[in-house]
Amino acid sequence: MRKRINLILVAALLFGLVAAWGTYQYLRHMENTYKASGQFIPVAVAKVNIPARQVISQQMVEFTQMPSNYANPASLGKPEEVVGKVARSDIYTGEQVLKNNIASPNDPAEGLAMTVEPGRRAMTVAINDITGVAGLLRPGDQVDVLGTLPVGNQTITSLIVQNIRILAVNKSTSASSDNKPGQTGTLTLSLSPGEAQQLTLAAEKGSIRVLLRTPADKDWVSVPSTNVNHLVR
After folding, report:
1. In this structure, are 148 and 85 located in the same domain?
2. How many domains are there within the chain?
3. Residue ranges making up the domain that contains 61
4. For residues 155, 158, 160 and 164, what is the CA-based torsion angle, rounded to 10 degrees?
5. Hey, how many other C-beta atoms are within 10 angstroms of the C-beta on 6?
6. pLDDT tens series, the chain, 233 aa
């Protein structure tokens, strides 16, 4: 009796395996049929929870084939469309990555933080039309900054930072030609932490003046500091 029961169990197991294999083959066939007919499309799906403002890495997403009628019309399916972008809002594990959920890391429309390069910081300095090139500066311009401050019993002028990108003029981050130049009150600059320290000291202890560069000039120049004695011939 026990032997008979064992045979029945083995037979049931074999039939189950055969049925599972048949189902698997059927599903594979259906998948291949859908793919061949163009009804499967690649879709990016979050492998982990991706918080808002996070740069999306390759390890955070996977690209899978999905029936087109189950994919969101706004879903993305190419690595270059997703990896390296920034999440606008939280994206949860298993969720499709959608066009309106991500932004380019340098898109000023997404806020000032998106325009700051890795390793640099945004810092605002106060200027006027005289010290700020007559209010003709625009976001995206490259500038140098001179600092004039007392050192001992002398007053010196020194080139503090060079080839610095302007992130914002007053509260505008747009360099559009529709934005007409006007009176300048503040500049927000992209600085390394060391440059930010130097420029802060110059602005706090003395005065600063901005020099506008042509976009074609990226060279670093070596200029010695100047004091009143250097003006006497």
Report:
1. no
2. 2
3. 38-102
4. 130
5. 10
6. 555 555 566 566 666 666 666 676 656 666 566 555 557 889 999 999 999 888 899 999 999 888 888 888 889 889 999 998 888 889 999 999 999 888 887 777 778 888 888 899 999 999 998 999 988 999 999 999 999 999 888 899 999 999 999 999 998 887 665 555 556 699 999 999 999 999 999 999 999 999 999 999 989 999 898 888 877 76
8 A C-beta contact, residue 51 and residue 90: yes
Give the CATH number, domain containing residue 83: 3.90.1210.10
Q: Are residues 134 and 46 in the same domain?
A: no
Q: Which two tokens stand for residue 149?
A: 């401050």
Judge if 85 and 128 occupy the same domain: no
Residue 166 identity (one-letter amino acid) = I
Distance CA 171, CA 169 (A): 6
Residue type, 70: Y
Same domain, yes or no: 207 and 125: yes
Query: HSE of 232 in the Cβ direction (CA atoms, 13 Å)?
Result: 3
Residue 201: how many CA atoms within 13 Å on its side-chain side?
Answer: 10
CB 39: neighbour CB atoms within 10 A? 13
Residues 160, 124: one domain? Answer: yes
- Put simply, whether the predicted model's pTM sits higher than 0.85 gets the answer no
Is residue 159 within 8 A of residue 223, CB to CB? The reply is: yes
